[in-house]
């Protein structure tokens, strides 16, 4: 590897670890400080942190790879994601920020569910925590897989070494600085990703002789690449159900703990609008860049008579078309995408293990110091399990992400939405909706029904129906409706 590339990557690692140390010195040592940053995130950090933790390695590897293989029909995923992210900012962000504070200053999503519905049985907390641990371990594994592929294809290291290096750096700064370190590194990583996803497709198009020449080259390869309702890889038509299935990725946003926890941590409700404007601009530009990288990358690779793993097209282009120093920066962008998501997922999972298992059932009177230590131990444990799962190289990054995304979207999405808008929602409805959503996704995956419809769709629908039906039988527990009224009153105060 060129010296310039090594220098760029070394500088990146130093900056990430330095941010972790800085956050450690700035953050309160109590549980709220470690797991939620003291609810002091500004709008810019909130927006880019949510975006970077959302997009992960699939933004620079999975999504360009899908575009490379399928053509613009893969763009339906992007359309759904943009709509879903906007709806998340409008419907969930301001309400969740206020309600989690009103509901006994809830720190985690399971904590919020328990306090929102006055669940003294703790069933909501336990099941929500189990869902988080199961699906986030899968999700974290997808990021580690991406890191392994990156180090193998770019650095000449073994896939296994790549797994440990990727996870090791993330674990280091997450252990040191907690939520604030994760959010601050996400902000820097989001900036790096943005620049890279603007730079790479522009340079590729210039190398191909301009936009017209690039499009002509792709049409010569396969005209189906520009047909939105045809999968260029298989030649099969994409039906209306198929479009809905691809675009349905967007509804998963309502239930992603590593994203919506940013809304819980933002400084004030009034900052949500600024965060939305920044976040949506970042997301739209970045997604377009990722799609164009895959599409025009195909023209460049084919024109040079090469054959590559589609999910490594960004890596290939960054090393072929740029000076080693710039190439190192672009590789750092991939690491940024990977690490930003892994760190968020590790922190949310460790928060759940610490607050929702350790403190709730083993050490109710544990001190803040003890809980922070437990959280750090949990980070290491989850990372090791994710590395173990990542040894299976057969699963693609996009496949691993899609499974975890569907699990959270179906189990938590309807529950979060209804909990924020339905005053008389009951504990039984919340529990039933969460279980039905998660089980539907697992059954769909087990019987391999994904070829017909993305599992998040039946999971989300059945979970919603369960919540609506069960809420008609029985009444909310004492104090639940009063808490909802207090939440609405505080919302009015915050907005005025």
TrEMBL record:
Coarse class of the protein's main subcellular location: membrane
Gene Ontology CC annotations of this record: plasma membrane
Keywords carried by this UniProt record: Amino-acid transport, Cell inner membrane, Cell membrane, Ion transport, Membrane, Sodium, Sodium transport, Symport, Transmembrane, Transmembrane helix, Transport
Membrane topology: Multi-pass membrane protein
Reactions mediated catalytically: L-proline(in) + Na(+)(in) = L-proline(out) + Na(+)(out)
InterPro entries per record: Na/Glc_symporter_sf, Na/Pro_symporter, Na/solute_symporter, Na/solute_symporter_CS, Sodium:Solute_Symporter
Short name of one Pfam family: SSF
TM annotation in the entry: 6-24, 67-91, 123-141, 161-180, 187-206, 237-256, 277-301, 313-338, 371-391, 403-421, 428-446, 452-470
Record function comment: Catalyzes the sodium-dependent uptake of extracellular L-proline.
Compartments in which it is found: Cell inner membrane; Cell membrane
Molecular function GO labels: L-proline transmembrane transporter activity; proline:sodium symporter activity; sodium ion binding
Natural source organism: Alteromonas halophila
Family indicated by similarity: Belongs to the sodium:solute symporter (SSF) (TC 2.A.21) family.
GO biological process, one term: proline transport
Highest rank taxon of the organism: Bacteria
Name this protein carries in UniProt: Sodium/proline symporter
């Amino acid at each position: 590897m060129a010296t310039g590339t090594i220098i760029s990557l070394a500088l990146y690692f130093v900056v990430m670890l330095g941010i972790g140390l800085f956050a450690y010195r700035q953050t309160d040592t109590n549980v709220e400080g470690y797991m939620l940053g003291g609810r002091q995130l500004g709008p810019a950090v909130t927006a880019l942190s949510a975006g970077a933790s959302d997009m992960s390695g699939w933004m620079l590897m999975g999504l360009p790879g899908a575009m490379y293989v399928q053509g613009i029909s893969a763009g339906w995923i992007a359309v759904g994601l943009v709509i879903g992210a906007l709806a998340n900012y409008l419907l969930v962000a301001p309400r969740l920020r206020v309600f989690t504070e009103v509901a006994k200053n809830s720190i985690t999503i399971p904590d919020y569910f328990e306090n929102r519905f006055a669940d003294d049985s703790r069933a909501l907390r336990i099941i929500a925590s189990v869902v988080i641990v199961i699906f986030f371990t899968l999700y974290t594994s997808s990021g580690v897989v991406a890191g392994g592929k990156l180090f193998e294809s770019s650095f000449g290291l073994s896939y296994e070494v790549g797994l440990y290096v990727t996870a090791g750096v993330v674990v280091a700064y997450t252990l040191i600085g907690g939520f604030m370190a994760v959010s601050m590194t996400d902000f820097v990583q989001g900036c790096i990703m943005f620049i890279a996803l603007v730079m790479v497709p522009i340079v590729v198009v210039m190398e191909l002789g301009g936009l017209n020449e690039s499009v002509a080259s792709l049409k010569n390869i396969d005209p189906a690449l520009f047909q939105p309702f045809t999968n260029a890889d298989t030649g099969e038509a994409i039906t209306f159900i198929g479009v809905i299935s691809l675009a349905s990725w967007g509804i998963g946003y309502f239930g992603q703990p590593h994203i919506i926890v940013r809304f819980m941590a933002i400084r004030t409700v009034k900052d949500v609008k600024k965060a939305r404007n920044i976040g949506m601009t970042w997301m739209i530009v970045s997604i377009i860049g990722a799609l164009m990288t895959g599409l025009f990358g195909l023209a460049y690779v084919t024109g040079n008579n090469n054959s590559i793993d589609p999910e490594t097209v960004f890596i290939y282009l960054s090393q072929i078309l740029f000076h080693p120093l710039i190439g190192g920066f672009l590789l750092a962008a991939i690491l940024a995408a990977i690490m930003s998501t892994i760190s968020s997922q590790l922190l949310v999972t460790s928060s759940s293990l610490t607050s929702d298992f350790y403190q709730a059932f083993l050490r109710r009177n544990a001190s803040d110091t003890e809980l922070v230590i437990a959280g750090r131990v949990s980070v290491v444990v989850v990372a090791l399990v994710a590395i173990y799962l990542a040894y299976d190289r057969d699963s693609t990054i996009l496949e691993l992400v899609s499974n975890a995304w569907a699990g959270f979207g179906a189990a938590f999405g309807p529950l979060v939405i209804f909990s924020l808008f339905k005053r008389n929602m009951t504990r039984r409805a919340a529990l039933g909706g969460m279980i039905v959503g998660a089980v539907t996704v697992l059954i769909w995956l087990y019987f391999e029904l994904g070829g017909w419809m993305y599992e998040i769709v039946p999971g989300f629908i059945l979970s919603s129906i369960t919540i609506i039906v069960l809420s008609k039988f029985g009444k909310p527990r004492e104090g639940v409706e009063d808490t909802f009224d207090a939440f609405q009153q505080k919302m009015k105060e915050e907005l005025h």
